[in-house]
Amino acid sequence: MKQHRLQRDPLTLLVLRSRRAVQPTKALPMPITTVGLDADDTLWHNETIFRLTQARFLDLLGEHETAAVEARLAEVERRNLRLYGYGIKGFTLSMIETAMELCDGEAPPSVIREILAAGREMIAHPVETLPGVDEALAELSERYRLVLITKGDLLDQERKLAASGLGDLFAAVEIVSDKDRMTYDRVFDRHGTGPSEAVMAGNSMKSDVLPALAAGAFAVHIPYVVTWAHELADAPAGNDRYEALETISALPNWVRERDEGSAS
Fold first, then answer.
1. Are 39 and 66 in a shared domain?
2. CATH code of 135's domain
3. 196 with 216: CB under 8 angstroms?
4. Which domain holds residue 96?
5. Which terminal CB of the chain, N or C, has fewer other CB atoms within 10 Å?
6. pLDDT digit string (tens) for 7-52?
7. Domain boundary residue, one of 96, 124, 152
8. Which of 124, 151, 181 corresponds to the end of one domain?
9. Which of 262, 251, 111, 116 lies closest to 196, judged by CA?
C-alpha cells in the first residue's frame, strides 16, 4: 500500500522551526530607582501627640466612662474620615462632635474651647524627627529618587516638612487623601520609573505596605511605638518584595542590597 506523507509549504516549516527555537526566558529583576517614604510616625513623631491630646479630651469628659468615650470617638473618627480626611483638623472636629453627642447636644462651652485650644496646640507642636532619619535619607538621596507620600491636611503636612529640614532631600512631595493601589501606581509612574522599580517605606501596614505591594512595588514596614487603630492590618505572608525593619537606619543597606541583587 502506498503511503502518503503530509506536505507542508516552506512558510509553514519556517513558522514551526521558529516556535521550536523560541524558549521562554525568565524575567530579569528590575533595578530600584525610587524610594517612597511616609511622613507621620516614619520620619517624625505624630501619633504620640494625638494620644496625649486624646488623654486630655478624656479628662474633659471625666464624668463619662473612659471606655465609652474612646469607643464613641473612634466611631466618629471613622465616620468622618470621608468628610474631613486625615489630620489634626479632622481629629479636632471629631472630638467636638463626640462631646456634643455624649452631652446630648449640650456640651459646655468651656469643653469646646478646650478642644479647640488642644487642636491649635497640636498644629503648633514642634516637629521632632525620629532617630536615624536624617542620616538614612541623606544616604538614600545620593543614589535614589526620594518621594514623600503622606496623607493628611495639606497645610499641616507642608508645615511639618518645612520644619523638619528634610525638604531638600525629596525630588517630589505627594500629599494625598488616601493611599491605595492606584495612588502608588500614579505616584511612582509620575515621579519614577513605575512601581516595579520602587520601594515604599512606612509605619502603616494598611497604608504603606499592602497597597504598595498590590501595585508591584517593594514595601518595607518600619514600626512606630504606637499605631492608630485605623491603620492596623496583618503583615503579608510569603511575599518576597516585603520586609520588616526595626529602624529606618537599616533602610539604605536593605535597598542597596536589593538593587545590587537585581544587577547580578
1. no
2. 3.40.50.1000
3. yes
4. 47-124
5. N
6. 445 444 333 333 333 343 444 467 999 999 999 999 999 989 999 9
7. 124
8. 124
9. 262
Whole-number pLDDT of residue 30: 73
> How many angstroms separate the first and last alpha carbons of the chain?
61
Is the alpha carbon torsion for 259, 260, 263, 264 positive or negative? negative
Helical (H) or strand (E) element with 176? strand 172-176
Which of 121, 124, 122, 146 shows the shortest CA–CA distance to 133? 146
* Per-residue model confidence (pLDDT) at position 232: 75
The reported pTM is 0.82
Instruction: Report CA-CA distances (Å) from 206 to 111, 133, 203, 210, 235.
Output: 33, 22, 9, 6, 9
Q: Who has greater pLDDT, 4 or 64?
A: 64
Q: Which has the minimum average pLDDT: 6-10, 113-117, 152-156, 228-232?
A: 6-10
Facing residues of 200 across strands?
36, 219
At 149, the amino acid letter reads I
Same-domain check for residues 115 and 167: no
Q: Which residues contact 263 (CB under 8 A, 6 or more apart)?
A: 31
**What does the pLDDT read at residue 17?**
39
Residue 65 DSSP symbol: -
Residue found by looking up cell 473618627 in the block: 77
Mean pLDDT check: name the lowest of 70-74, 155-159, 170-174, 235-239: 235-239
CATH code where residue 97 lies: 1.10.150.240
Q: What distance in Å separates the CA atoms of residue 172 and residue 127, rounded to the nearest whole number?
A: 20
In terms of Cα–Cα distance, which of 2, 21, 18 is closest to 10? 18
